[in-house]
Amino acid sequence: MPELPEVETVVRSLAPHLPGQRIRNAEFQRVRLLRNDPDEAAAALRGRRIRSIERRGKFIVMTLDPPGYFIVHLGMTGKLLWNGDVGKHTHAVLTFDRGTLVYTDPRKFGRLHYSEALPPALEELGPEPLLISQEQFIADIKKRGARLKALLLDQTFLRGLGNIYADEALFRAGIHPLAVSRRLTRARLAGLHAAIQQVLAEAIAGKGSSIADYVDSDGQRGSFQHQHRVYRRTGEPCVQCGATIRRTLVTQRGTHYCPHCQKR
C-alpha cells in the first residue's frame, strides 16, 4: 500500500499540472470505488477549478473552486496518472483544459470521494510525522500503552506512517516492534522520533518504494526499496550485525526486525 512517501511523491508530481486548471469533464467508469453517486459527482466536479493539491496522511486532497474537495486514497494498487492511458483497470478520468488525470486500480481497494466539506475521518488523523516535535511525540506515546509497531500504524496517532516505514524506523532506532510504548525511556523515544523523520525524508528523496507496481503520476518508479534494511528481508543477514532478519505479525501485518539489533 502506498504510504506517506509514495503519496507525497504523487502529490509533488501532480503539483505542476493541476492548480488553476478547470475540470471540463469527469467520468467514473466503475462505481465501486466512488463514495458518491457517479452522475452527481461528475456534475459537481464539472466546471470547478483545482485550487490546490496536498497530502493529508495517505489521502490526496484536491481543494476546489467553487468550494469543495475531491479526495483520493490509493488503497493497495491505485495510481493517479497524468495523461495516462485508459485501460481495463481505469476507474475515473478527469479531463482538464490541458491534460487528463486517470485513476487506475487493478485490485480495487482505493477510494474516490467528492465532498463539499472535509470528511470527519480526515479531521481525526493524528499529527504529521515530519512536523511533530520531539516533545509532543514523546508526550503522546507516554499516554498510550500499546505495542509500538501497532501504535505507529494507528492513523490517529501519526498520519501516513505504514508498514514499510514503521519497520524501517524501528530498526534504525534499535527498538523491537513488540516493545510497549510507555515503558521506553525518553532517550529511546527521542531516537525513534529522529529515525521516523529521517527514514521518511530519505524515502521521499528516493520518490518512494516501488515494491510492486507503485509509480508516480508520470509513471516513474521509486528507488527507496533498494535501501530497505529489514522490510521484506526475512531470512537475509542484517546489514548492521549479520544476524538473520525475522518476520512476525503485529495487528495482522507482516513485521520485519533484527533479533540482535532490536532486542525486547
Instruction: Name the helicity range.
Output: 25-40%
H and E string: HEHEEEEEEEHHHHHEE
Radius of gyration equals 20 Å
Number of domains: 2
Strand content: 15-25%
| DSSP, total strands | 10
Overall pLDDT score: 96
Rough outline: elongated
Q: How many H/I helical runs?
A: 7
Uncertain residue segments = none
Largest sheet: 4 strands, antiparallel
Terminal residue distance: 28 Å
CATH class of the largest domain: Mainly Alpha
Label the structural class.
alpha+beta
- Sequence of strands across the biggest β-sheet: 1-6-7-5
Q: Specify the CATH architecture of the largest domain.
A: Orthogonal Bundle
| CATH fold-level label of the largest domain | Helicase, Ruva Protein, domain 3
Describe this structure in words.
Helix content is 26%, strand content 22%. With 264 residues, it is an alpha+beta fold. The chain folds into two domains: 4-123, MutM-like, N-terminal (N-terminal domain of MutM-like DNA repair proteins); 134-257, Helicase, Ruva Protein, domain 3 (Orthogonal Bundle). Strands 1-6-7-5 form a four-stranded antiparallel β-sheet. A four-stranded antiparallel β-sheet has the order 2-3-4-8, with helices on one face. It has helices spanning 4-14, 38-45, 120-123, 134-142, 148-153, 163-173, 186-205, and strands spanning 23-28, 49-56, 59-65, 68-73, 79-82, 90-96, 99-104, 111-115, 246-250, 253-257.
